[in-house]
Protein backbone atom coordinates (compact mmCIF):
# COMPACT_ATOMS: atom_id res chain seq x y z
CA UNK A 1 0.00 0.00 0.00
CA UNK A 2 1.37 3.38 -0.85
CA UNK A 3 0.45 7.01 -0.06
CA UNK A 4 1.95 10.24 1.26
CA UNK A 5 1.86 13.98 1.13
CA UNK A 6 3.60 13.67 -2.19
CA UNK A 7 2.85 10.25 -3.61
CA UNK A 8 2.62 6.86 -2.11
CA UNK A 9 2.62 4.68 1.00
CA UNK A 10 5.26 2.13 1.89
CA UNK A 11 4.27 -0.81 4.07
CA UNK A 12 6.74 0.46 6.66
CA UNK A 13 9.81 2.64 6.90
CA UNK A 14 11.56 0.02 9.05
CA UNK A 15 14.53 -1.91 7.71
CA UNK A 16 13.18 -4.80 5.60
CA UNK A 17 13.69 -8.30 6.98
CA UNK A 18 16.04 -10.74 5.33
CA UNK A 19 13.08 -12.90 4.34
CA UNK A 20 9.67 -11.71 3.10
CA UNK A 21 6.71 -11.78 5.50
CA UNK A 22 4.27 -14.59 5.02
CA UNK A 23 0.99 -13.67 3.38
CA UNK A 24 -1.62 -13.96 6.15
CA UNK A 25 -4.47 -14.74 3.77
CA UNK A 26 -2.87 -17.99 2.64
CA UNK A 27 -1.98 -19.28 6.10
CA UNK A 28 -4.22 -22.20 7.03
CA UNK A 29 -4.51 -22.84 10.73
CA UNK A 30 -6.85 -25.09 12.69
CA UNK A 31 -9.82 -23.40 14.38
CA UNK A 32 -9.49 -22.70 18.10
CA UNK A 33 -11.69 -25.67 18.97
CA UNK A 34 -9.54 -28.20 17.12
CA UNK A 35 -7.84 -30.86 19.20
CA UNK A 36 -5.04 -33.18 18.05
CA UNK A 37 -6.35 -36.30 16.38
CA UNK A 38 -6.16 -39.48 18.48
CA UNK A 39 -2.76 -41.10 18.09
CA UNK A 40 -1.07 -37.92 16.81
CA UNK A 41 2.67 -37.71 17.49
CA UNK A 42 5.11 -34.82 17.44
CA UNK A 43 6.79 -34.44 14.07
CA UNK A 44 10.42 -33.71 13.31
CA UNK A 45 9.70 -30.20 12.02
CA UNK A 46 8.89 -28.67 15.41
CA UNK A 47 12.10 -26.57 15.68
CA UNK A 48 11.65 -25.19 12.15
CA UNK A 49 7.99 -24.37 12.80
CA UNK A 50 8.85 -22.65 16.07
CA UNK A 51 11.52 -20.57 14.34
CA UNK A 52 9.09 -19.61 11.55
CA UNK A 53 6.43 -18.48 14.03
CA UNK A 54 8.96 -16.44 15.99
CA UNK A 55 10.03 -14.55 12.87
CA UNK A 56 6.41 -14.15 11.73
CA UNK A 57 5.40 -12.66 15.09
CA UNK A 58 8.32 -10.23 14.94
CA UNK A 59 7.22 -9.04 11.49
CA UNK A 60 3.58 -8.72 12.63
CA UNK A 61 4.69 -6.34 15.38
CA UNK A 62 6.11 -3.85 12.85
CA UNK A 63 3.96 -4.51 9.76
CA UNK A 64 0.17 -4.31 9.59
CA UNK A 65 -1.49 -7.67 8.96
CA UNK A 66 -4.87 -7.71 7.24
CA UNK A 67 -6.87 -10.53 8.83
CA UNK A 68 -9.14 -12.47 6.47
CA UNK A 69 -11.98 -14.82 7.40
CA UNK A 70 -10.79 -18.35 8.12
CA UNK A 71 -9.47 -20.04 4.96
CA UNK A 72 -10.33 -16.86 2.99
CA UNK A 73 -13.98 -17.88 2.75
CA UNK A 74 -15.84 -16.99 -0.45
CA UNK A 75 -18.18 -14.53 1.26
CA UNK A 76 -19.98 -13.59 -1.95
CA UNK A 77 -20.87 -17.19 -2.80
CA UNK A 78 -21.81 -18.06 0.79
CA UNK A 79 -24.05 -15.01 1.06
CA UNK A 80 -25.81 -15.83 -2.21
CA UNK A 81 -26.40 -19.38 -0.96
CA UNK A 82 -27.93 -18.07 2.27
CA UNK A 83 -25.12 -19.63 4.32
CA UNK A 84 -24.32 -16.50 6.32
CA UNK A 85 -23.82 -18.55 9.47
CA UNK A 86 -20.67 -19.99 7.92
CA UNK A 87 -19.50 -16.46 7.09
CA UNK A 88 -19.87 -15.49 10.75
CA UNK A 89 -17.94 -18.60 11.85
CA UNK A 90 -15.17 -17.97 9.33
CA UNK A 91 -14.78 -14.35 10.46
CA UNK A 92 -14.75 -15.31 14.14
CA UNK A 93 -12.28 -18.17 13.64
CA UNK A 94 -9.98 -16.05 11.45
CA UNK A 95 -9.74 -13.32 14.06
CA UNK A 96 -9.20 -15.78 16.91
CA UNK A 97 -6.46 -17.63 15.03
CA UNK A 98 -4.63 -14.42 14.09
CA UNK A 99 -4.70 -13.17 17.69
CA UNK A 100 -3.57 -16.52 19.08
CA UNK A 101 -0.79 -17.21 16.58
CA UNK A 102 0.61 -13.71 16.07
CA UNK A 103 0.30 -12.57 19.66
CA UNK A 104 -1.14 -9.60 21.52
CA UNK A 105 1.48 -7.17 20.16
CA UNK A 106 0.71 -7.83 16.49
CA UNK A 107 -0.63 -4.96 14.39
CA UNK A 108 -3.81 -6.70 13.23
CA UNK A 109 -6.35 -5.07 10.93
CA UNK A 110 -9.53 -7.00 11.75
CA UNK A 111 -12.05 -4.50 10.43
CA UNK A 112 -10.92 -4.15 6.78
CA UNK A 113 -12.76 -6.40 4.32
CA UNK A 114 -10.78 -7.66 1.34
CA UNK A 115 -13.05 -9.85 -0.80
CA UNK A 116 -11.64 -12.33 -3.26
CA UNK A 117 -10.48 -10.65 -6.43
CA UNK A 118 -11.18 -7.27 -4.85
CA UNK A 119 -14.78 -7.38 -6.11
CA UNK A 120 -17.98 -7.84 -4.14
CA UNK A 121 -21.72 -7.42 -4.57
CA UNK A 122 -23.93 -5.29 -2.36
CA UNK A 123 -25.37 -8.15 -0.30
CA UNK A 124 -21.94 -9.60 0.50
CA UNK A 125 -20.52 -6.20 1.45
CA UNK A 126 -23.48 -5.71 3.81
CA UNK A 127 -22.65 -9.11 5.28
CA UNK A 128 -19.09 -7.94 5.91
CA UNK A 129 -20.51 -4.89 7.68
CA UNK A 130 -22.71 -7.06 9.88
CA UNK A 131 -19.56 -8.85 11.04
CA UNK A 132 -17.91 -5.64 12.20
CA UNK A 133 -15.97 -4.54 9.12
CA UNK A 134 -15.83 -0.76 8.86
CA UNK A 135 -13.90 -0.35 5.59
CA UNK A 136 -13.00 -2.38 2.50
CA UNK A 137 -10.21 -2.85 -0.03
CA UNK A 138 -11.51 -3.16 -3.60
CA UNK A 139 -10.23 -2.95 -7.17
CA UNK A 140 -11.27 -0.23 -9.57
CA UNK A 141 -13.42 -2.72 -11.54
CA UNK A 142 -15.64 -3.18 -8.47
CA UNK A 143 -16.82 0.42 -8.27
CA UNK A 144 -18.41 2.96 -10.57
CA UNK A 145 -17.33 6.40 -9.44
CA UNK A 146 -19.50 9.44 -9.99
CA UNK A 147 -16.49 11.65 -10.82
CA UNK A 148 -14.44 11.54 -14.02
CA UNK A 149 -11.22 10.46 -12.27
CA UNK A 150 -11.08 7.25 -10.30
CA UNK A 151 -10.52 8.27 -6.64
CA UNK A 152 -8.39 6.19 -4.29
CA UNK A 153 -11.12 6.15 -1.63
CA UNK A 154 -14.89 6.10 -2.07
CA UNK A 155 -18.02 5.84 0.05
CA UNK A 156 -20.37 2.99 -0.80
CA UNK A 157 -23.88 2.36 0.52
CA UNK A 158 -25.47 -0.99 1.29
CA UNK A 159 -28.50 -2.17 3.24
CA UNK A 160 -26.29 -2.05 6.35
CA UNK A 161 -25.39 1.61 5.78
CA UNK A 162 -22.43 3.53 4.30
CA UNK A 163 -18.90 2.13 4.24
CA UNK A 164 -15.65 3.60 2.94
CA UNK A 165 -13.44 1.64 0.58
CA UNK A 166 -9.82 2.02 -0.49
CA UNK A 167 -9.41 1.37 -4.24
CA UNK A 168 -6.25 -0.29 -5.56
CA UNK A 169 -4.28 1.36 -8.35
CA UNK A 170 -4.37 -0.94 -11.38
CA UNK A 171 -1.63 0.85 -13.33
CA UNK A 172 0.78 0.71 -10.37
CA UNK A 173 0.05 -2.94 -9.60
CA UNK A 174 1.74 -4.22 -12.74
CA UNK A 175 5.02 -2.45 -11.98
CA UNK A 176 5.06 -3.64 -8.36
CA UNK A 177 4.23 -7.22 -9.32
CA UNK A 178 7.12 -7.34 -11.77
CA UNK A 179 9.60 -6.06 -9.17
CA UNK A 180 8.60 -8.51 -6.44
CA UNK A 181 8.67 -11.45 -8.88
CA UNK A 182 12.40 -11.67 -8.20
CA UNK A 183 13.33 -12.30 -11.82
CA UNK A 184 16.98 -11.17 -12.01
CA UNK A 185 16.96 -10.55 -15.74
CA UNK A 186 15.63 -7.07 -16.40
CA UNK A 187 15.17 -6.30 -12.70
CA UNK A 188 17.16 -3.04 -12.92
CA UNK A 189 14.93 -1.73 -15.69
CA UNK A 190 11.75 -2.68 -13.81
CA UNK A 191 13.03 -1.08 -10.63
CA UNK A 192 13.92 2.17 -12.42
CA UNK A 193 10.52 2.28 -14.12
CA UNK A 194 8.71 1.81 -10.80
CA UNK A 195 10.87 4.43 -9.09
CA UNK A 196 10.17 6.93 -11.89
CA UNK A 197 6.44 6.21 -11.64
CA UNK A 198 6.45 6.81 -7.88
CA UNK A 199 8.50 10.01 -8.12
CA UNK A 200 6.14 11.31 -10.81
CA UNK A 201 3.15 10.58 -8.61
CA UNK A 202 4.90 12.27 -5.69
CA UNK A 203 5.18 15.49 -7.65
CA UNK A 204 1.64 15.50 -9.07
CA UNK A 205 -0.69 13.60 -6.75
CA UNK A 206 -0.94 16.26 -4.01
CA UNK A 207 -0.99 13.72 -1.21
CA UNK A 208 -3.49 11.33 -2.78
CA UNK A 209 -2.82 7.77 -1.67
CA UNK A 210 -1.96 4.95 -4.03
CA UNK A 211 -2.80 1.36 -3.08
CA UNK A 212 -1.24 -1.82 -4.37
CA UNK A 213 -3.28 -4.98 -3.68
CA UNK A 214 -1.64 -8.21 -4.89
CA UNK A 215 -3.68 -11.11 -6.11
CA UNK A 216 -4.40 -13.89 -3.67
CA UNK A 217 -2.06 -16.38 -5.33
CA UNK A 218 0.96 -14.14 -5.84
CA UNK A 219 4.29 -15.60 -4.69
CA UNK A 220 6.90 -12.88 -4.20
CA UNK A 221 10.50 -13.95 -3.96
CA UNK A 222 12.56 -12.92 -0.95
CA UNK A 223 14.99 -11.01 -3.11
CA UNK A 224 12.25 -9.21 -5.05
CA UNK A 225 10.37 -8.20 -1.94
CA UNK A 226 13.55 -6.96 -0.26
CA UNK A 227 14.33 -4.91 -3.38
CA UNK A 228 10.88 -3.29 -3.22
CA UNK A 229 11.25 -2.49 0.47
CA UNK A 230 14.71 -0.98 -0.14
CA UNK A 231 13.29 1.25 -2.88
CA UNK A 232 10.46 2.48 -0.68
CA UNK A 233 12.80 3.13 2.23
CA UNK A 234 15.07 5.19 -0.04
CA UNK A 235 12.14 7.25 -1.33
CA UNK A 236 10.89 7.72 2.21
CA UNK A 237 14.32 8.89 3.39
CA UNK A 238 14.18 11.60 0.71
CA UNK A 239 10.71 12.73 1.79
CA UNK A 240 8.95 11.42 -1.29
CA UNK A 241 6.75 8.76 0.31
CA UNK A 242 5.44 7.94 3.73
CA UNK A 243 3.42 5.11 5.17
CA UNK A 244 -0.33 5.16 5.77
CA UNK A 245 -2.68 2.40 6.85
CA UNK A 246 -5.58 1.10 4.83
CA UNK A 247 -8.22 2.46 7.25
CA UNK A 248 -6.58 5.88 6.91
CA UNK A 249 -6.72 5.60 3.12
CA UNK A 250 -10.40 4.66 3.24
CA UNK A 251 -11.10 7.57 5.58
CA UNK A 252 -9.94 9.99 2.83
CA UNK A 253 -13.11 9.27 0.83
CA UNK A 254 -14.75 12.48 -0.36
CA UNK A 255 -17.08 11.13 -3.05
CA UNK A 256 -19.57 8.27 -3.35
CA UNK A 257 -19.79 5.42 -5.82
CA UNK A 258 -21.90 2.41 -6.68
CA UNK A 259 -20.73 -1.18 -6.56
CA UNK A 260 -20.28 -2.89 -9.92
CA UNK A 261 -19.98 -6.65 -9.62
CA UNK A 262 -18.34 -7.86 -12.85
CA UNK A 263 -19.49 -10.98 -14.67
CA UNK A 264 -15.99 -12.39 -14.38
CA UNK A 265 -16.33 -12.36 -10.59
CA UNK A 266 -19.68 -14.15 -10.71
CA UNK A 267 -18.27 -16.79 -13.05
CA UNK A 268 -15.46 -17.64 -10.60
CA UNK A 269 -17.61 -18.04 -7.49
CA UNK A 270 -17.86 -21.39 -5.77
CA UNK A 271 -20.91 -23.18 -7.13
CA UNK A 272 -24.05 -23.54 -4.96
CA UNK A 273 -24.01 -27.33 -5.42
CA UNK A 274 -20.47 -27.51 -4.02
CA UNK A 275 -21.37 -25.32 -1.05
CA UNK A 276 -24.45 -27.42 -0.26
CA UNK A 277 -22.44 -30.64 -0.48
CA UNK A 278 -19.84 -29.27 1.94
CA UNK A 279 -22.61 -28.11 4.26
CA UNK A 280 -24.23 -31.55 4.16
CA UNK A 281 -21.01 -33.39 5.06
CA UNK A 282 -20.22 -30.92 7.86
CA UNK A 283 -23.73 -31.48 9.23
CA UNK A 284 -23.10 -35.22 9.00
CA UNK A 285 -20.00 -35.04 11.19
CA UNK A 286 -21.75 -32.70 13.63
CA UNK A 287 -24.67 -35.12 13.89
CA UNK A 288 -22.35 -38.06 14.50
CA UNK A 289 -20.61 -36.07 17.24
CA UNK A 290 -23.98 -35.43 18.89
CA UNK A 291 -24.88 -39.12 18.71
CA UNK A 292 -21.53 -40.07 20.27
CA UNK A 293 -21.85 -37.44 23.00
CA UNK A 294 -22.77 -39.96 25.70
CA UNK A 295 -22.42 -39.03 29.36
CA UNK A 296 -21.13 -42.18 31.09
CA UNK A 297 -20.16 -42.40 34.73
CA UNK A 298 -17.00 -44.18 35.80
CA UNK A 299 -19.11 -47.00 37.26
CA UNK A 300 -20.86 -47.61 33.92
CA UNK A 301 -17.79 -47.51 31.69
CA UNK A 302 -17.18 -51.22 32.12
CA UNK A 303 -20.63 -51.85 30.65
CA UNK A 304 -20.80 -49.20 27.94
CA UNK A 305 -17.14 -48.49 27.19
CA UNK A 306 -15.38 -45.10 27.29
CA UNK A 307 -17.19 -42.23 25.58
CA UNK A 308 -15.85 -40.66 22.40
CA UNK A 309 -13.36 -37.85 23.11
CA UNK A 310 -14.64 -34.31 22.72
CA UNK A 311 -13.84 -32.79 19.35
CA UNK A 312 -13.22 -36.19 17.73
CA UNK A 313 -14.35 -34.95 14.32
CA UNK A 314 -13.22 -31.32 14.64
CA UNK A 315 -10.24 -31.88 12.30
CA UNK A 316 -12.62 -33.13 9.60
CA UNK A 317 -15.00 -30.21 10.12
CA UNK A 318 -12.08 -27.76 9.98
CA UNK A 319 -10.83 -29.36 6.79
CA UNK A 320 -14.28 -29.17 5.25
CA UNK A 321 -14.62 -25.51 6.27
CA UNK A 322 -11.61 -24.81 4.07
CA UNK A 323 -13.68 -25.96 1.12
CA UNK A 324 -15.51 -22.64 1.40
CA UNK A 325 -12.23 -20.95 0.50
CA UNK A 326 -12.13 -18.57 -2.43
CA UNK A 327 -8.77 -20.16 -3.23
CA UNK A 328 -10.71 -23.13 -4.63
CA UNK A 329 -12.52 -21.04 -7.21
CA UNK A 330 -12.25 -22.78 -10.55
CA UNK A 331 -10.90 -25.96 -8.94
CA UNK A 332 -13.96 -28.23 -8.58
CA UNK A 333 -11.91 -31.44 -8.77
CA UNK A 334 -10.17 -30.76 -5.46
CA UNK A 335 -13.46 -30.21 -3.64
CA UNK A 336 -15.06 -33.22 -5.31
CA UNK A 337 -12.26 -35.55 -4.19
CA UNK A 338 -12.35 -34.36 -0.58
CA UNK A 339 -16.15 -34.46 -0.40
CA UNK A 340 -16.17 -37.98 -1.80
CA UNK A 341 -13.71 -39.21 0.82
CA UNK A 342 -15.32 -37.46 3.79
CA UNK A 343 -18.82 -38.34 2.67
CA UNK A 344 -17.79 -42.00 2.53
CA UNK A 345 -16.41 -41.73 6.06
CA UNK A 346 -19.72 -40.35 7.33
CA UNK A 347 -21.59 -43.26 5.74
CA UNK A 348 -19.15 -45.83 7.18
CA UNK A 349 -19.50 -44.43 10.70
CA UNK A 350 -23.29 -44.45 10.46
CA UNK A 351 -23.24 -48.01 9.16
CA UNK A 352 -21.30 -49.03 12.28
CA UNK A 353 -24.52 -49.22 14.31
CA UNK A 354 -27.54 -50.98 12.87
CA UNK A 355 -30.69 -53.04 13.43
CA UNK A 356 -30.07 -56.77 13.35
CA UNK A 357 -32.27 -58.28 10.66
CA UNK A 358 -34.49 -61.01 12.19
CA UNK A 359 -34.30 -64.52 10.76
CA UNK A 360 -38.06 -64.94 10.49
CA UNK A 361 -41.35 -63.29 11.30
CA UNK A 362 -42.81 -62.09 14.61
CA UNK A 363 -46.05 -63.64 15.88
CA UNK A 364 -48.26 -61.34 17.91
CA UNK A 365 -50.79 -63.42 19.83
CA UNK A 366 -52.54 -60.69 21.79
CA UNK A 367 -53.63 -57.13 21.42
CA UNK A 368 -50.74 -55.90 23.62
CA UNK A 369 -47.92 -58.09 22.33
CA UNK A 370 -44.63 -56.09 22.36
CA UNK A 371 -42.09 -55.82 19.56
CA UNK A 372 -38.53 -57.07 20.09
CA UNK A 373 -35.83 -55.29 18.08
CA UNK A 374 -32.08 -56.04 18.37
CA UNK A 375 -29.41 -53.37 17.77
CA UNK A 376 -25.67 -53.83 17.35
CA UNK A 377 -22.86 -51.29 17.66
CA UNK A 378 -19.55 -52.05 15.95
CA UNK A 379 -18.08 -48.66 16.86
CA UNK A 380 -15.40 -48.33 19.58
CA UNK A 381 -17.59 -45.81 21.42
CA UNK A 382 -21.13 -45.99 22.81
CA UNK A 383 -23.74 -44.31 20.66
CA UNK A 384 -27.19 -42.80 21.26
CA UNK A 385 -29.81 -43.87 18.72
CA UNK A 386 -33.58 -43.99 18.31
CA UNK A 387 -35.77 -46.63 16.64
CA UNK A 388 -38.28 -45.24 14.16
CA UNK A 389 -41.14 -47.40 12.91
CA UNK A 390 -42.67 -46.42 9.59
CA UNK A 391 -45.90 -44.64 10.48
CA UNK A 392 -47.72 -45.62 7.27
CA UNK A 393 -46.81 -49.30 7.65
CA UNK A 394 -47.92 -49.22 11.29
CA UNK A 395 -51.25 -47.66 10.36
CA UNK A 396 -51.90 -50.34 7.75
CA UNK A 397 -51.21 -53.05 10.31
CA UNK A 398 -53.27 -51.38 13.03
CA UNK A 399 -50.06 -51.18 15.09
CA UNK A 400 -49.54 -48.50 17.76
CA UNK A 401 -45.98 -48.75 19.13
CA UNK A 402 -44.86 -46.61 22.05
CA UNK A 403 -42.00 -44.15 21.65
CA UNK A 404 -39.19 -45.39 23.91
CA UNK A 405 -36.90 -42.45 23.06
CA UNK A 406 -33.15 -42.46 22.44
CA UNK A 407 -31.29 -45.55 23.58
CA UNK A 408 -27.58 -45.93 24.36
CA UNK A 409 -25.87 -48.91 22.74
CA UNK A 410 -22.56 -49.92 24.34
CA UNK A 411 -19.38 -50.02 22.29
CA UNK A 412 -19.02 -53.34 20.45
CA UNK A 413 -22.22 -54.69 22.04
CA UNK A 414 -25.76 -55.67 21.10
CA UNK A 415 -28.95 -54.43 22.72
CA UNK A 416 -32.43 -55.96 22.49
CA UNK A 417 -35.23 -53.45 22.87
CA UNK A 418 -38.74 -54.27 24.05
CA UNK A 419 -41.19 -51.84 22.49
CA UNK A 420 -44.68 -51.91 24.05
CA UNK A 421 -47.36 -51.79 21.37
CA UNK A 422 -51.00 -52.47 20.59
CA UNK A 423 -52.35 -54.12 17.49
CA UNK A 424 -55.97 -54.09 16.41
CA UNK A 425 -55.89 -56.27 13.32
CA UNK A 426 -55.05 -59.83 12.51
CA UNK A 427 -53.12 -61.03 9.49
CA UNK A 428 -49.61 -60.76 8.04
CA UNK A 429 -48.09 -57.29 7.77
CA UNK A 430 -44.73 -55.79 6.79
CA UNK A 431 -43.45 -52.86 8.87
CA UNK A 432 -40.28 -50.86 8.08
CA UNK A 433 -37.89 -49.94 10.91
CA UNK A 434 -34.96 -47.47 10.78
CA UNK A 435 -32.33 -46.30 13.28
CA UNK A 436 -31.77 -42.54 13.54
CA UNK A 437 -29.17 -40.47 15.33
CA UNK A 438 -29.47 -37.41 17.53
CA UNK A 439 -29.84 -35.25 14.41
CA UNK A 440 -32.53 -37.58 12.93
CA UNK A 441 -30.08 -38.81 10.28
CA UNK A 442 -30.38 -42.47 9.28
CA UNK A 443 -27.97 -45.01 10.78
CA UNK A 444 -27.52 -48.44 9.25
CA UNK A 445 -29.82 -49.95 6.64
CA UNK A 446 -33.60 -50.04 7.04
CA UNK A 447 -35.08 -53.38 8.11
CA UNK A 448 -38.52 -54.79 7.25
CA UNK A 449 -40.25 -56.73 10.04
CA UNK A 450 -42.82 -59.38 9.09
CA UNK A 451 -45.60 -59.44 11.71
CA UNK A 452 -48.11 -62.30 11.99
CA UNK A 453 -50.97 -61.12 14.15
CA UNK A 454 -53.51 -63.62 15.55
CA UNK A 455 -54.81 -61.16 18.09
CA UNK A 456 -58.41 -60.05 18.13
CA UNK A 457 -58.26 -56.46 19.04
CA UNK A 458 -61.10 -54.21 20.09
CA UNK A 459 -61.47 -52.88 16.58
CA UNK A 460 -61.61 -56.38 15.12
CA UNK A 461 -64.03 -57.46 17.84
CA UNK A 462 -66.31 -54.54 17.05
CA UNK A 463 -66.26 -55.54 13.41
CA UNK A 464 -67.10 -59.15 14.25
CA UNK A 465 -69.94 -58.20 16.61
CA UNK A 466 -71.29 -55.71 14.12
CA UNK A 467 -71.20 -58.29 11.34
CA UNK A 468 -72.89 -60.90 13.56
CA UNK A 469 -75.56 -58.40 14.53
CA UNK A 470 -76.24 -57.58 10.92
CA UNK A 471 -76.49 -61.29 10.09
CA UNK A 472 -78.80 -61.97 13.05
CA UNK A 473 -81.08 -59.09 12.18
CA UNK A 474 -81.20 -60.23 8.58
CA UNK A 475 -82.04 -63.79 9.66
CA UNK A 476 -84.86 -62.61 11.97
CA UNK A 477 -86.33 -60.44 9.26
CA UNK A 478 -86.18 -63.31 6.79
CA UNK A 479 -87.89 -65.74 9.21
CA UNK A 480 -90.55 -63.17 9.99
CA UNK A 481 -91.16 -62.58 6.32
CA UNK A 482 -91.44 -66.33 5.67
CA UNK A 483 -93.85 -66.74 8.62
CA UNK A 484 -96.01 -63.92 7.34
CA UNK A 485 -96.00 -65.38 3.83
CA UNK A 486 -96.97 -68.81 5.17
CA UNK A 487 -99.76 -67.35 7.33
CA UNK A 488 -101.12 -65.38 4.38
CA UNK A 489 -101.22 -68.48 2.18
CA UNK A 490 -103.02 -70.52 4.88
CA UNK A 491 -105.67 -67.83 5.34
CA UNK A 492 -106.20 -67.63 1.63
CA UNK A 493 -106.69 -71.39 1.43
CA UNK A 494 -109.24 -71.20 4.26
CA UNK A 495 -111.23 -68.56 2.46
CA UNK A 496 -111.12 -70.56 -0.75
CA UNK A 497 -112.41 -73.70 1.10
CA UNK A 498 -115.36 -71.80 2.57
CA UNK A 499 -116.82 -70.77 -0.81
CA UNK A 500 -116.13 -73.93 -2.85
CA UNK A 501 -118.93 -76.81 -2.78
CA UNK A 502 -118.19 -80.43 -2.26
CA UNK A 503 -117.85 -82.50 -5.44
CA UNK A 504 -121.07 -84.73 -4.70
CA UNK A 505 -123.38 -81.75 -4.03
CA UNK A 506 -123.27 -79.37 -6.87
CA UNK A 507 -124.64 -75.98 -6.14
CA UNK A 508 -127.89 -74.91 -7.84
CA UNK A 509 -127.55 -72.83 -10.94
CA UNK A 510 -129.09 -69.60 -9.82
CA UNK A 511 -128.86 -68.17 -13.28
CA UNK A 512 -131.14 -70.89 -14.74
CA UNK A 513 -133.75 -70.79 -11.97
CA UNK A 514 -135.95 -68.13 -13.46
CA UNK A 515 -136.07 -70.02 -16.72
CA UNK A 516 -137.11 -73.30 -14.97
CA UNK A 517 -139.66 -71.52 -12.93
CA UNK A 518 -141.09 -69.95 -16.01
CA UNK A 519 -141.33 -73.28 -17.71
CA UNK A 520 -143.13 -74.83 -14.81
CA UNK A 521 -145.57 -71.96 -14.73
CA UNK A 522 -146.22 -72.22 -18.37
CA UNK A 523 -146.90 -75.95 -18.09
CA UNK A 524 -149.28 -75.47 -15.25
CA UNK A 525 -151.10 -72.78 -17.10
CA UNK A 526 -151.54 -74.98 -20.17
CA UNK A 527 -152.91 -77.85 -18.21
CA UNK A 528 -155.63 -75.86 -16.80
UniProtKB/TrEMBL annotation:
Segments of skewed composition (Low complexity)? 1-16, 510-528
User: Does this entry carry the keyword Transmembrane helix?
Assistant: yes
Membrane-crossing ranges are 455-479
Pfam families linked to this entry: DUF6049
Which stretches does the entry tag as region Disordered? 1-43, 490-528
Q: Which UniProt keywords apply?
A: Membrane, Transmembrane, Transmembrane helix
* InterPro entries assigned: DUF6049 (IPR046112)
Superkingdom, according to UniProt?
Bacteria
- Composition-biased stretches, type Pro residues, lie in 17-35
Query: Could you confirm whether the keyword Membrane appears in this record?
Result: yes
The protein's name is Uncharacterized protein
Which species is the source of this protein?
Nakamurella antarctica
Amino acid sequence: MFSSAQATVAPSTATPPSTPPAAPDTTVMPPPSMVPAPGAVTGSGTPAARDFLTRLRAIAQTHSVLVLPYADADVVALTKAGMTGYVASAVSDGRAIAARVLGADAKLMMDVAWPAGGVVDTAALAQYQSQGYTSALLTSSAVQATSANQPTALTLTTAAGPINAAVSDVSLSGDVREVISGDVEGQAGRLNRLAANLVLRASTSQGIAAVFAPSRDYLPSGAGFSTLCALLNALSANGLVTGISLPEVAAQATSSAELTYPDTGAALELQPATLNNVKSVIAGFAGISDSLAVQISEADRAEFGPPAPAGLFDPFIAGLSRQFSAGLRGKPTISAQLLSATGQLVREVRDGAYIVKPAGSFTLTSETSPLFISLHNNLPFPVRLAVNINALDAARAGLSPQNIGIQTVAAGRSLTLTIPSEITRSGVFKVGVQLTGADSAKWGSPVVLVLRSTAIGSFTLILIVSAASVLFIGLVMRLRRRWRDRHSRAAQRARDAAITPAPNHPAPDTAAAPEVAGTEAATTEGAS
